[in-house]
Amino acid sequence: MQSYSSYNINLDKLASWLIPKALRKPLLVILFSACLYALNFFHGLFVKYRKAKLYQVMITSQVCYLERLLNDRFDFTERRIKIGDAEWHLPLFLFQEDELKPQFIFQESEAKPVHLFNDAEAGAVKGDFVVLVPVSVSFSEPEMRSLIDFYKLFGTTYSIQKI
To answer: How many folded domains does the chain comprise?
Structure first.
């Protein structure tokens, strides 16, 4: 990867260097600089775009990088946005406590019961992680969701919680 300094070009100096020394008068240097104005403008856009893309490539789905991304975007000074694990509850089995007759399904050769339950009975895990945002932080939820969706791993779910 090339260093940033290789893209740091001063086109005004370059214009004066490319003029032969015998012809290097202030008026000609100004004329060359005016000719290079558009190139200078697009070079500035390119450098900004490159910096943004390098930042985008640096962010991964790791918790520390997601927190950095969200804090850089929504809470730059105090950096209070945190990411935590979602709550998980032990599964509830498919029988009422009054019945005292749990139904186990397993093959006799395995001799290991498999307990059947659905998400609602298991405490309904609402996601793999929770984004904890202080109430005092103003943010746009759709924008925050789009940022998280872009960087999170496929198949992981999350919720945003104000604390």
So the answer is: 1
